[in-house]
Amino acid sequence: MISYARQTHDEQPEAAPPPVEEHIAPAPRVSVQAFCETVETAAAVQSAGEDRRLGKAHLKIQMGGMAAAIEAYRSAPTPNVIVLESDGRNDLLSGLDQLATVCDAGTRVVVIGRINDVMLYRELVRRGVSDYVLAPVGPIDVVRSICNLFSAPEAKAVGRIIAVVGAKGGVGASTISHNVAWAIARDLAMDAVVADLDLAFGTAGLDYNQDPPQGIADAVFSPDRVDTAFIDRLLSKCTDHLSLLAAPATLDRVYDFGTDAFDAVFDTLRSTMPCIVLDIPHQWSGWTKRALIGADDILIVAAPDLANLRNTKNLFDLLKASRPNDRPPLYCLNQVGVPKRPEIAATEFAKAIESQPVVSIPFEPQIFGSAANNGQMIAEISANHKSIEMFLQIAQRLTGRSETKKQKSSLLSPLIEKLRGK
Ligand SMILES: Nc1ncnc2c1ncn2[C@@H]1O[C@H](COP(=O)(O)OP(=O)(O)OP(=O)(O)O)[C@@H](O)[C@H]1O
Ligand SMILES: [Mg+2]
């Protein structure tokens, strides 16, 4: 058992999704066995097991609490994590002492209990319990507790994946993902990478005016070679904070990927890059579905017509159902106001989706067309264009961060910081 405790007793037990600022990194392939005393806790652990962040973990749930755990491990080896629900204090401590005699080294113990008392925490820490979570627990509390066992505290800021997808082809999903990633890198000063997952036809290379010799295909076709150094070599630098994992955009191969083809690439990017923007092509396959469900946040780009509305609704329904412990996806409308084209109003869209669009980006063929053909971002063509503010708004909503540029540019800010420090 390990010898530090993380106290989550001051957190809300409700099953509300975690705030966007809180980032829970997915757990690796570990075995987890839970011994519950109440059906409520068993149900919470069961739904936690269905959370995307525990997708790789193997979870087994049993009733019977401490007594069942001691009985179980008398003969069987212990898993990577044991989750124990316990009501009492003395039973708990004596039970843990007994369990310690049969526990394999490296097994971590998480206790779910009802006693909120610092003396008890101390006793638990002394016995090497990794985490104590106060009941009643919601699924996200269990997810958080298990995932945090495997993520170093200093790595917390690392690896948020943002998936961007169009509700239909050609609605501008790639354009928006590239401009939003630009805003994340420039205005929020976060290191970001755009991964162009449209291997055959992707435009990220064109949009950022990059022609890298290698890119994402080298990684996805040789998953065994994928590690941080390998991926680093495939990235091309667009700006100070922005890199690109480009698509080959060639047709000599076909790209019929298996469901988990991108897992190694995403896991590696997550371990080094604070923000990963996936430009997902508009298609429905095992791997696109997996990339969406597994992302930390999702942006759906839709044009204001009926097919986009239906598809957005279907995507929302599916993603909400598959991600019950996450906030719902975000969406934005794009290409709004094409002359003479009948459109569905943003209010109607919002009513049907039961969620407001983050922004409605107008149809501006002149500026978007020039940007696309020149290999530039909108902000490079027209520093004050109204869509730039919208890209920033999307960036802020997706990352949960606010702008840093303005604070930095203030002459007085170093002084203000100093005064604040005192
Ligand atoms: N707001 C806008 N106003 C005018 N043109 C736009 C706007 N947004 C995107 N476009 C243009 O629409 C075209 C399609 O954009 P983009 O390639 O980003 O769409 P997509 O949804 O990624 O398409 P695909 O389905 O091929 O992946 C591009 O030429 C782009 O410049
Ligand atoms: Mg695209």
From TrEMBL:
KW Flavoprotein (keyword) present: no
InterPro entries with a match to the protein in the record: AAA_dom (IPR025669), P-loop_NTPase (IPR027417), ParA/MinD_ATPase (IPR050625)
Organism domain of life: Bacteria
Listed GO CC annotations: cytoplasmic side of plasma membrane; cytosol
Region (Disordered): 1-21
Keywords: ATP-binding, Nucleotide-binding
GO MF annotation list: ATP binding; ATP hydrolysis activity
UniProt record, GO biological process: negative regulation of cell division
Residues in AAA domain copies: 160-317
Name listed for the protein in its UniProt record: AAA family ATPase
Species in which this protein is naturally found: Bradyrhizobium cajani
